[in-house]
Amino acid sequence: MGRKWNNIKEKKAAKDKNTSRIYAKFGREIYVAAKQGEPDPELNTTLKFVLERAKTYSVPKSIIDRAIEKAKGGTEENYDELRYEGFGPNGSMIIVDTLTNNVNRTAAEVRAAFNKNGGNMGVNGSVAYMFDSTAVIGFEGKTEDEVLEFLMEADLDARDIVEEDNSIIIYAEPDQFHAIQEACREAGVTDFTVAELTMLAQTDVNLDSETEEQFDKLIDALEDLEDVQQVYHNVEMS
């Protein structure tokens, strides 16, 4: 899975050159997390997780502080967390997570992105059962044996540990995210290249070059939507 996750990150990095879009999405996510609980990450695990993710995308401190201050100010801007499921070309499966202050607008825009790019919306549960919610934590400077040792000492389990090109990627249960990160820090890890709670497909599909190009356009159309935070799929990208 390590190679797969690195490929996903490389693809996203290539597409996400519009950093203002990334920062806007994180600003919204940080605001929602801070408003739903305490605006202090040490007292709000959801906010703490979002800030850990933001670090791996180099989100500026000014963006983070502005979103938290907005939440502290008691702004009556409310967002709903909604998930949409659908199918792309050749039966490929897609999950779309959104934060929206206008449910009707978001539903219409997501449906239009599917319809205009060779896909179609599915009903709730039509796709998600083929994915596993997974914590993914990546860093450099440790070997697989060293990681296994300090996780065992902390009485923590991982689904998988992949070592590749001096980089480690740990796949684990979502509820182990913070504990594993803390164990990594205690073992001397200071920076994380990946810190995600994601949806990983149980099985991947391959598309021919022409179909993959169409699939890319569908994913781009979904990710470009203002209300879309994350898009997951089961296509093995070339």
How many E-type strands?
8
| Amino-to-carboxy terminus distance | 15 Å
In the predicted model, the low-confidence regions spanning at least 5 consecutive residues are none
Mean pLDDT: 89
Spatially, the strands of the biggest sheet line up as 3-1-2-8
Keywords: Cytoplasm, DNA-binding, Transcription, Transcription regulation
Organism: Aquibacillus koreensis
Domain TACO1/YebC-like second and third: 79-235
Domain TACO1/YebC-like N-terminal: 3-74
Description of the molecule:
Belongs to the TACO1 family. YeeN subfamily. It holds the Pfam family Transcrip_reg. One of its GO terms (biological process) is regulation of DNA-templated transcription. The longest helix is centred in the first third of the chain and has 18 residues, at 19-36. The protein has helices at 2-15, 19-36, 45-56, 61-72, 103-116, 144-153, 177-186, 209-223; strands at residues 80-87, 93-100, 120-121, 131-140, 160-164, 167-172, 194-201, 228-233. It is an alpha+beta fold and 238 residues long. The protein folds into three domains: 2-72, Orthogonal Bundle (Arc Repressor Mutant, subunit A); 80-129 and 204-233, YebC, transcriptional regulation domain (Alpha-Beta Plaits, 2-Layer Sandwich), CATH 3.30.70; 130-200, Alpha-Beta Plaits. A hairpin with a 2-residue loop joins β5 and β6. The chain is globular. The model has no long low-confidence stretch (mean pLDDT 89). The strands form two sheets. Strands 3-1-2-8 form a four-stranded antiparallel beta sheet. The chain contains eight helices and eight strands, in the order ααααββαββαββαβαβ.
